[in-house]
Design brief:
This protein is mostly helical and about 230 residues long. The chain has one domain. It is built from six helices and four strands, in the order E-E-H-H-E-H-H-E-H-H. The protein has helices at about 20, 30-70, 75-105, 115-145, 155-165, 175-210, and strands at about 5, 5-10, 75, 150. The strands form two sheets. A two-stranded antiparallel sheet has the order 1-2. It has a two-stranded antiparallel ribbon with strand order 3-4. A hairpin with a 2-residue loop joins strand 1 (about 5) and strand 2 (about 5-10). Helix 2 (about 30-70) packs antiparallel against helix 6. Keywords: Membrane, Transmembrane, Transmembrane helix.
């Protein structure tokens, strides 16, 4: 198999995703990183998909109302901005920790250049900050804001609101909005935990190297044998 940028592609196999290999405790925090990374990626993905669905529905509602009456204007940019922020940073979560997950699966003993580790940690902090901002912004907008219809009389605005009642103009009245905010907060917890684990793992590699802490078949300090059962 070829070697590309120092990555030996012969190490890539479906067997690397097996439980015994993925959760091999000879590498520091390997098991913890796999679990927390996956939770961060999957929950943020769920928040992103839910926010995308809500955004599409509010955008469709706006298009429908404004197509009926060219004088009408639907104001929902606050929610759309919060949802766009959520979508962007949840994608970043999946990109960064997904890449680190991928490299850890196939090349757990590889040491990376100093510049790469610095950029990776910088991005992890930035992404966690972005998810935090998205969570706070989404919470405030959903809890206290709502869309408005202007440019028409109050009677017409109420008529359009009854006609296009889903999604409701008041954001907190729709379960989809509440669901994406709740998922986002849970995803933030695991994104923060992933960042902490990333920093701790890199610190360990800088101090002790990336090689396994003991040979396969030996026992770890707690006396747990790592020899896979036949």
């Amino acid at each position: 198999m070829p070697v590309i940028w120092g990555f030996d592609l012969s190490h890539m196999s479906w067997g690397a995703f097996g439980h015994r290999k993925m959760f091999d405790r000879r590498w520091h925090l390997r098991r913890e990183r796999f679990i927390v990374y996956q939770l961060a990626m999957l929950i943020c993905l769920a928040a992103e998909c839910t926010a995308t669905y809500s955004l599409a529905k509010y955008q469709s509602q706006q298009d429908n109302i404004e197509s009926i009456n060219e004088d009408a204007a639907v104001h929902n940019n606050d929610l759309i901005a919060a949802q766009c922020l959520t979508i962007v940073f949840c994608v970043f979560v999946a990109t960064l920790f997904g890449a680190d997950f991928f490299f850890l699966v196939f090349w757990p003993s590889r040491r990376y250049p100093y510049w790469y580790n610095v950029i990776k940690k910088f991005l992890a902090v930035g992404i966690t900050t972005g998810v935090t901002a998205a969570a706070f912004m989404s919470t405030i907008v959903v809890a206290s804001h709502g869309a408005r219809i202007t440019g028409v009389s109050l009677e017409q605005a109420e008529q359009y609101e009854r006609l296009f009642f889903r999604p409701p103009l008041r954001y907190k009245d729709w379960a989809v909005n509440i669901a994406y905010v709740v998922l986002l907060w849970i995803g933030l917890v695991f994104t923060f935990a992933s960042t902490v684990l990333l920093f701790k793992a890199d610190k360990h590699v800088e101090r002790y190297g990336a090689e396994p802490m003991w040979e396969e078949g030996e026992k770890d300090p707690r006396g747990v044998s790592l020899t896979p059962p036949n």
